[in-house]
Write a structure and sequence with these properties.
single chain, Arc Repressor Mutant, subunit A, globular
Length: 99
């Protein structure tokens, strides 16, 4: 095995990425107001900047996340609808898991 060789990760579909983003924002520790800004969310979810902008925009358009403006930073927060959606994703994942 060569040094630095990494096994390819399985491709995530849109719903897996949505679930990851929602759980990242939902599990943010409120140490700083700017803790879950766009850059931190994308880095934690292992997404490129254009992917992060696209998916966070879609989640905000669906009403699952809100962009809260606190000067000089803005950050993402999960809504009640987003928490419910995350719960449904988890329940579906549990139901579809083989015994």
């Amino acid at each position: 095995m060569k040094m630095g060789f990494r096994r390819p990760q399985p491709q995530r579909d849109k719903f897996d990425i949505f679930k990851d983003l929602l759980s990242i924002v939902a599990n943010a520790k409120p140490l700083y107001r700017n803790q879950m800004n766009q850059t931190r969310v994308g880095y934690t979810a292992n997404l490129t900047h254009p992917q992060t902008v696209k998916y966070l925009g879609e989640l905000a358009d669906l009403g699952l996340l809100i962009l809260t403006d606190y000067k000089p930073y803005s950050y993402y927060a999960i809504t009640k609808k987003g928490r419910r959606c995350l719960q449904i994703f988890s329940e579906m994942e549990d139901d579809l898991r083989p015994f």
